[in-house]
Design brief:
Chain B: One of its GO terms (molecular function) is hydrolase activity, acting on carbon-nitrogen (but not peptide) bonds, in linear amidines. Chain B: Pfam families: Arginase (PF00491). The complex is a heterodimer of chains A (336) and B (291). Chain A is α/β, with parallel strands linked by helices and 336 residues long. Chain A has one domain: Ureohydrolase domain (Arginase, Chain A). Chain A is globular. The mean pLDDT of chain A is 92. Chain B is built from seven helices and ten strands. Chain B has an eight-stranded parallel beta sheet with strand order 1-5-2-6-10-9-7-8, sandwiched between helices. In chain B, strand 9, helix 6 and strand 10 form a beta-alpha-beta unit. In chain B, helix 3 crosses helix 4 and helix 6 runs parallel beside helix 7. The chains are: A alpha/beta (336), B alpha/beta (291). At the A-B interface, strand 8, helix 5 and helix 6 of A face strand 3 and helix 7 of B. Strand 8 of chain A pairs antiparallel with strand 3 of chain B, so a sheet runs across the interface.
Chain lengths: 336, 291
């Protein structure tokens, strides 16, 4: 008698990618000081070049591949002179929010529900766009969660971006789109415009929007300011301004602040002259900031056949999360 | 007057350069900037696609068509922290369309006639190429003109070369900019028409990757902006954009080259219209101030 041949094998690993190859878990399983990842694969609220709905997957793939190239565990991180920590110690990937195409309210609430739950638990929501509108629902959920966790707490806001995104409305797209996200965030109850800072703005901006920001005490650093002041000093000033009287920081990373020559795979390209090195220096300036929540948006893989955009963006995450993904050296270290 | 009173998505509506008004060539007047396209290929180019450049340039220019979009209050140059004047932009900038396809002889004849007519009317032609070989036709339409060339290979020692492609000892953009600009003013003869060739190869290739003639050591955007601002202060009869191939293999979705060229071209347009954005390093906006 011939024994049946077993053809089923449990998968060696979960199929698909998670950010930093971390574990896939529900938002309800998050705990304090963890990074909780929320995918926002939506580009229905972008007005021109689409493709950012593929951004979360691309970031998960790129961070996992880059993670695999970096030694884990008791190894040395050359950028930080600290030990690297496996993602299981500091991150959970909660999957994607439910996106309802052309129903911006439903999409907004779905994303906000996830970042709210993470914030209430004390975890730090990291939302992966998607176009920049999705930054608003991510921050909306964070704002609601913060109000529950610390009712009197205020948060500051830094947006690294080539554009202000402070319009009240945009043509046929109305009030909820990739040009209005910062305006909608400014209307949340536990933030004031005087604690909002923009870094990397390039080219022309709407004069009315700029005046509205500055009249209310907000601060705008142009790409030229980054070149003149230097990235580290720019971010030092930006952080000081954003955190005046605030308890936590919400960071919105729009990758398009980097010059499109380096990073073409994004919806609204600019020629800011900002290099990858400068962008990473900006993020390094926030390495020890009291992050309450963050998002990274506008990664559009179909717009960059070379795929370098998603890897540049993945490196941004390595930079901003260095405090989490590394630990201080407490004993002798052997480099691997 | 704006073209319309309601916001329009960028990809919708009639396509014209910066949402400018369209005009018949016979209506182009003195002081106007008349945009025309030459959507034709250089058949010896390494890749097909140059003929798509005029449309690509117009498409990306719509992003800067704020003067025709009532939803914006007014544009501000965020680095200079200055309002960008758009007064008169709509009246003086116009799009006269493309040279029509036909036999090679007919195309060259039409381009020559159009360039001459625009120049004779006291206007400046902004020619969206297309094959750079057609620049000879434009030159021939402007009798005894001087040619200033940004990028591309030097062909005539009498021309003024700004960051040319290396060609048997050609200069590079490592020259001291102030000395180079002074040399330009010395070279310029205001009694002759001025033709500007603006080739994408003036830029460092890593900034766009959409140029059929890649080069290392090209200029950054700021340097090119300063040159075009200076050139725009002179009585330019025609400026021709070449070298963009928006359809390089696999690169059709990468719009970086056209954005780079239009962003730089804006400096020329503003200076030509006398707006004078007072960008750092710029001259004042009076024409021929340095000649």
């Amino acid at each position: 008698m011939t024994a049946a041949i077993t053809t089923f094998h449990p998968p060696l690993a979960q199929p698909g990618y998670r950010l930093f190859d971390g574990p896939l878990q529900d938002v309800a399983d998050a705990h304090a000081d963890q990074i909780g990842v929320v995918g926002m694969p939506s580009d229905w609220t972008h007005s021109s070049r689409l493709g950012t709905r593929f951004g979360p997957d691309a970031l998960r793939r790129a961070t996992s591949l880059m993670q695999s190239l970096r030694p884990q565990g008791a190894s040395f991180d050359p950028d930080t002179s600290r030990l690297t920590a496996p993602a299981t110690d500091w991150l959970i990937d909660c999957g994607d929010a439910e996106i309802t195409a052309q129903d911006v309210d439903a999409t907004t609430e779905a994303i906000a529900a996830m970042t709210e739950a993470l914030t209430v638990s004390g975890a730090i929501p990291l939302a992966l766009g998607g176009d920049h509108y999705n930054s608003f629902p991510a921050c909306l959920g964070y704002s609601r969660g913060l109000a529950k966790r610390a009712p009197n707490a205020r948060f500051g806001y830094i947006q690294i971006d080539g554009h202000l995104d402070f319009s009240d409305r945009l043509g046929a797209w109305g009030s909820h789109n990739h040009a209005t996200n910062a305006r909608r965030i400014s209307e949340l109850p536990n933030i004031d415009v005087s604690n909002m800072v923009w870094v990397g703005i390039a080219g022309w901006v709407d004069g009315g929007d700029l005046a509205l920001i500055e009249e209310q005490g907000g601060r705008v650093f142009s790409a030229g300011d980054v070149h003149k002041l230097g990235a580290a000093e720019t971010m030092r000033q930006a952080l000081a301004h954003a955190m005046k009287g605030c308890d936590e920081l919400y960071l919105s990373i729009d990758i398009d602040a980097m010059d499109a020559g380096y990073l073409p795979g994004t919806g609204s390209i600019v020629h800011s002259g900002i290099t990858p090195r400068q962008y990473y220096d900006l993020l390094d300036g926030l390495a020890d900031a009291p992050l309450g929540g963050l998002d990274i948006v506008e990664v559009s893989p179909p717009l960059d056949p070379s795929e370098r955009t998603e890897f540049l963006a993945a490196e941004m995450l390595f930079r901003i999360l260095r405090r989490f993904r590394t630990r201080p050296v407490t004993g002798p270290v052997t480099e691997q | 007057m704006p073209l319309r009173s309601a916001p329009l998505p960028r990809m919708a509506g009639h396509l014209s350069f910066m949402r400018s008004q369209t005009k018949a060539i016979s209506d182009v007047g003195s002081g106007d900037l008349a945009v025309m396209g030459i959507p034709f290929e250089d058949t010896s180019a390494p890749h097909a696609g140059q003929s798509l450049a005029p449309r690509a340039l117009r498409e990306t220019s719509v992003y800067f068509g704020w003067h025709a979009n009532p939803q914006f209050s007014h544009p501000v140059d965020i680095d200079a922290r200055q309002d960008i004047s758009t007064d008169g932009l709509h009246e003086r900038l116009c799009d006269i369309g493309d040279i029509a396809p036909g036999s090679e002889g007919a195309i060259h004849a039409a381009l020559k006639a159009a360039t001459r007519q625009i120049s004779d009317n006291g206007a400046c032609a902004i020619i969206l190429g297309g094959s750079d070989r057609m620049s000879e036709t434009v030159q021939s339409a402007l009798s005894h003109c001087q040619t200033a060339q940004l990028g591309c290979r030097p062909v005539d020692a009498r021309d003024f070369h700004i960051a040319p492609l290396p060609n048997e000892g050609g200069t590079t953009c490592t020259l001291d900019p102030a000395a180079h600009r002074a040399a330009f003013c010395e070279w310029r003869d205001a009694s002759k028409p001025l033709f500007v060739r603006f080739d994408l190869s003036v830029f460092e290739t890593s900034l766009s990757a959409l140029c059929d003639q890649p080069r290392l050591g090209g200029c950054d955007l700021e340097t090119v902006v300063q040159w075009l601002e200076l050139l725009g202060q002179h009585d330019v009869s025609a400026i021709m954009l070449t070298g963009l191939n928006p359809n390089r293999p696999g690169m059709g979705v990468v719009k970086v080259g056209q954005r780079l060229m239009v962003t730089a071209l804006l400096a020329f347009i503003y200076a030509r219209l006398g707006f004078g954005t007072d960008h750092p390093g710029s001259q004042n906006s009076k024409e021929n101030v340095l000649t």
